[in-house]
Amino acid sequence: MNKNMYLIRAVEIATIAAYKFIGHKDKNAVDFAAVEAMTIMLDNVPIKCRIIVGEGELDQAPMLFVNQELGKGKTLTYDLAVDPVEGTYPAAYNIAGSIACLAASTPNTILKLPEMYMEKLFVGPDLQDAINNEDDFITNIKTMQKIKKHNDLIGIMLDKPRHQKIIEKLHDLGIIVRLIGDGDVLAAIDIINKEADFVYGIGGAPEGVLMATLALSDGGDIKLS
């Protein structure tokens, strides 16, 4: 089997394991099933992987923790960023918006970030030139409008109290804002699929790493701060 297929299979197994807990209103059960399944799968493949972004250090996760090595290989093949269930609440309550995530890269090429909140702006390939890391978010938005010749911009944001003021500013600029309850990474996939123009918000750093790998692999761009 192609070594990349082991990783794809790990995501599939995590999804299958979590499925039977969908709608049970138990986020922990959904998450544990996916984490356990992904861990067992990765620990029994003929390659070696190291977790760089995992289930987190704050909750002292017993599986898929940072620096954990998995697999039967003798030399390190991949560094991984994983989120076996991104969007545990939607899965637990049988609402659309959950995804199993795994990003792989050659060793020592994934940035290790602590569990913290960070500002994230993700765009697709057609707006790569709009992001300037020295500019603030609103300035970048105005640049996007110029590139799109002031056609309607569609943004995706988490529906959180911390975002209300910026949502009001976007409405003042004529931006269409699609609000979601969970799922930064799935929202970023929507951008790559051209269902919207950008994802913006303050959220978890691990999801930021996964979004950055998506930008690198599919031609988008991301600003993290």
From TrEMBL:
It comes from the Bacteria. Its EC number is 3.1.3.11. Keywords: Carbohydrate metabolism, Hydrolase, Manganese, Metal-binding. Gene3D superfamilies: Fructose-1,6-Bisphosphatase, subunit A, domain 1. InterPro entries: FBPase_class-2/SBPase. Belongs to the FBPase class 2 family. This is fructose-bisphosphatase. It comes from Spiroplasma ixodetis. The lineage of its organism: Bacteria, Bacillati, Mycoplasmatota, Mollicutes, Entomoplasmatales.
